[in-house]
Every structure is written in structure tokens, then in C-alpha cells.
Write a structure and sequence with these properties.
Length: about 475
């Protein structure tokens, strides 16, 4: 295996990555809350997690990646107060919560396809796993890590010696996501305690509720990731991914409840991606109009331009977005793709030594905490080198297994004429996907979307039906 040195939020240093089982990586990604479109700041994290997974595969690992879909109980403050995001979306669009969840789940994976982000091997909605949540909470109560108060079940953080192990902060430095204008939850024994299960809350109109040993209610946000990860990846997790805003309280609470439940260390490596900022600060949906992939397309940007924009910076550095910068990246991307398209396509690579040299440089860049900026430099060095065209094309195709910039498509605008055979295939797969969605087989529907994306076909669901276009 190629050596990967990766920054670990848990230890606050770059470490040589060593999975629990040689050659095999168990990887978990915090998925979206499907109440609105993903903004491009959200998608920066998914792009970099995609790069991580693809580089691990490139380096020779067998990767199993799991992602949750939060379709219930996520509060806007990411703590135990605020407004329920799913309920907010349902009110805004006069739909049921599940209609909102289905629509925005599809929209999220559509954006991922546009950005050439691989769909994780397992995608699990939180609403699929209610019995598992209840079982885990029952075990935490038995072990005296959880308590019932005011009708809700809380995790007792005072039972832990190192609650702040991930965030490296202390109780005096944090207000646990609670604003001054939000009434504190008086049911808690400690201000850092968090809800595992709600039966009494300010959301009396909560649409989704389930029976439990504590009454009709719904799960707190944090429990879903622990349960879904353990269900699909077992008791020992190699890498857990997310944005830096997940470190506290979400990932901190995941560690607390998972290790209390399991009785041992749960995850060895924590991978966090920094914020995308604009001139006013961190991008968020709360600002009103926000930037989406579709909006970038409407303004004439190939989604690969945004992916390249992200790869030009290191994932642990805040990234400042502006359209002026994106315009420069667009010019660079189009020149790059056109330059590659001009390479001769015939012949066999003639310089194995040259190939080995540049592959070594690429691995050194990516193995150095995913230095994608340096990896792009290596790619440009290949184009400037004296290698024959066949060797250059071989290397570019090889590197693009990780960078996933669609560099060999030969057309930066990604528009092509559609032949009848391709049209027939697209229509057939879309019909199969529509039938799967009708039968609520969302895993099959997602797999078909991914298959279409791999063939360069982008789909969009509208009131009139599913439409598609060729983008590859």
C-alpha cells in the first residue's frame, strides 16, 4: 500500500494512516440534512471526502464507505434548541416531511453527480433505523450513561473523563451551541448533556413520531450517525469525515455515546474539512439566497470548475469564494482540458521511467495530507515534460481517477450530440429508476443515477417528469 499521512483531529497532528485491518478501510461520512438544496460550501466537504476515498482506493485499499441521510430531528442550532430543519422545510414548501426528504435527497445526489462525487457504497436514511436507535438508547440507560427527565432521554456527559477529547476545549470555553436568546433546557443535569430521544419538546406538531419505551417521540440528531456506522461498519471505525462545524457538538457527542455503548475506543481517525467563506463570512442557508451548483451552471460555470477551485486549496484551510476567482479557474480549466485534448491519442506509452517518476511525485503530494494543489502541479508538470503524448495521456487518466475533473472528456463545456443508442439506454434506465422510486427502493434509484452519471448523463426531476442531458 502507498503510504498516506493524514491529519487526525483526534490527536491534532499528521499521522501515518494505519487501518484496523490491513488493506481494508471502514469509512463513515456525515450526510446531508435533506430539507433544502446543498450550498457549495456544504459540497466542498463532500468533494474532499470523495478525494480521500478515491485516493485510498488508488493507493490499494478496499474501501467501504457509509453515509447517513438525516431526514428527521435535526435542529437548526446543531444542539438541543432551535428550529427543526425538516419541519422548517415542510412549512416553507407546504409539503410533508417525507416529500421534502425525498425531493432534496434526489437534489443532493444530482449535485454530487455533477461534481463527479462517487456515491458511497451504503446510504442509509435515519428513518430506516428507529429500532436500532431505541436499542442503543436502552443500553446506554442500562449502563447509567443516560437518564430520563421531563419526558426526554438525555446522555449524561458527566460520566465521561474526556468529553472534550475531539474539540480540545473545556466547559468554561463553550456555550454548547446555545444562543443568549434561547431558553436553556432545564431538564438537563449538565449543560453539555444532549438529547437521545424526544417525547416532550417544543415541536408539538412534529410530523414523524415513533413509539418507544419512553412514549411517542423521535430521536435526537446525534444518535443516528453512531447507530448507522456501527450497523454497517462494525465496532471499529477507521475514518470518520465531516466539516469542521461538526467537531462540536455533533462528533463530540458521537464519540461519547458510541464509546459508552461499545465499551472501547470507536474511531481512530477524524477527517474534517474547513469552511468555504464568502466576503461576509461562512456560507450558510440562513443568509437567504445561497450559492448552489445549479446557480453556478446558470451563470455558465461547468461544475468541474468549482471542483478544481476546491482542489487548488488545501482542505484544512478556509477557502474564500468569489466569482472573480472562479472566472480565473474557469479559464484555467478550459485551457487544461483543451490542451489535453490536443495530445495524440495513438500509440503505447514509451517512457516507463518517466511514468514512474511522475506517479511517485503524485503519490508524494497526495500522501502528504491530501495536498491536491501540489498534485495539480504535478499534472501540469507532466504536460510540460518531454514525455511522449501516449505517456502523458496515461498519466493524466491515472491521476484523474483521484482528481475526478473529467480531464479527458475533450470538451470543457461538456456538451455533445446524443446518438439514438445512447438516448434509448438513458430512457430505459430512467424508467427503471422511476419504478424503483415508486417502490421506495431508493438504494436502487441512487445506483441507477450513479450509473447514468458514469456514462455522462445528468438527470433532473421536475413536475413534468425526469429530464436528462449529456454532460460528458
Amino acid at each position: 500500500m502507498t503510504e498516506l499521512n493524514l491529519y487526525n483531529t483526534l490527536t491534532k497532528k499528521v499521522e501515518i494512516f494505519k487501518p484496523n485491518e490491513d488493506g481494508k478501510v471502514q469509512m463513515y461520512t456525515c450526510g446531508p440534512t435533506v430539507y433544502h438544496f446543498a450550498h457549495i460550501g456544504n459540497l466542498r466537504s463532500y468533494i474532499m471526502e470523495d478525494v480521500l476515498e478515491k485516493y485510498l482506493m488508488y493507493a490499494g485499499y478496499n474501501v467501504k464507505r457509509v453515509m447517513n441521510i438525516t431526514d428527521v430531528g435535526h435542529l437548526t442550532s446543531d444542539a438541543d434548541s432551535g428550529e427543526d430543519k425538516m419541519l422548517k422545510g415542510a412549512k416553507r414548501e407546504h409539503k410533508t416531511v417525507m416529500e421534502i426528504a425525498a425531493f432534496y435527497r434526489e437534489a443532493f445526489f444530482s449535485d454530487c453527480s455533477k461534481l463527479n462525487i462517487k456515491t458511497p457504497g451504503v446510504v442509509e436514511p435515519a428513518t430506516n433505523c428507529i429500532p436500532g436507535f431505541i436499542h442503543m438508547i436502552e443500553e446506554l440507560i442500562k449502563k447509567d450513561y443516560a437518564y430520563l427527565a421531563g419526558g426526554n432521554v438525555y446522555f449524561d456527559t458527566s460520566k465521561l473523563k474526556e468529553y472534550y477529547v475531539l474539540s480540545n476545549q473545556n466547559e468554561e470555553e463553550l456555550k454548547v451551541g446555545v444562543r443568549d436568546d434561547v431558553e436553556e433546557d432545564t431538564n438537563k443535569r449538565n449543560k453539555t448533556d444532549f438529547v437521545l430521544w424526544f417525547t416532550k419538546s417544543k415541536f408539538d406538531e412534529q410530523e414523524l413520531k415513533w413509539d418507544s419505551p419512553w412514549g411517542m417521540g423521535y430521536p435526537g440528531w446525534h444518535i443516528e450517525c453512531s447507530c448507522i456506522s456501527i450497523k454497517h461498519l462494525g465496532e471499529y471505525l477507521d475514518i470518520h469525515c465531516g466539516g469542521v462545524d461538526n467537531i462540536f457538538p455533533h462528533h463530540t457527542n458521537e464519540i461519547a455515546q458510541s464509546e459508552a455503548y461499545l465499551g472501547h475506543k470507536w474511531c481512530n481517525y477524524w477527517f474534517h474539512v474547513q469552511h468555504l467563506n464568502d466576503q461576509t463570512g461562512k456560507m450558510s442557508k440562513s443568509k437567504g439566497e445561497f450559492l448552489t451548483v445549479s446557480l453556478l451552471e446558470e451563470k455558465g460555470y461547468n461544475p468541474m470548475v468549482y471542483r478544481m477551485f476546491c482542489l487548488q486549496s488545501h482542505y484544512r484551510k478556509p477557502l474564500l469564494f468569489s466569482f472573480d476567482v472562479l472566472d480565473n479557474v474557469k479559464i484555467a480549466y478550459e485551457k487544461l482540458v483543451n490542451r489535453i485534448a490536443a495530445l495524440g491519442s495513438d500509440g503505447v506509452p514509451a517512457s516507463q521511467d518517466g511514468i514512474d517518476k511522475f506517479k511517485k511525485q503524485f503519490n508524494e503530494a497526495m500522501g502528504n495530507d491530501l495536498n491536491t494543489s501540489q498534485a495539480l502541479t504535478v499534472l501540469y508538470d507532466v504536460l510540460k515534460s518531454g514525455l511522449d503524448d501516449a505517456s502523458k495521456r496515461f498519466l493524466i487518466e491515472d491521476f484523474d481517477k483521484v482528481l475526478s475533473l473529467r480531464l479527458l472528456d475533450g470538451n470543457a463545456s461538456m456538451e455533445q450530440e446524443v446518438d439514438s443508442e445512447l438516448e434509448e439506454m438513458a430512457d430505459r434506465l430512467i424508467a427503471e429508476r422511476n419504478e424503483a422510486r415508486k417502490n421506495k427502493d431508493f438504494a436502487k434509484a441512487d445506483a441507477i443515477r450513479e450509473e447514468l452519471a458514469q456514462k455522462g448523463i445528468e438527470i433532473k426531476d421536475t413536475r413534468e417528469g425526469t429530464i436528462w442531458k449529456l454532460v460528458k
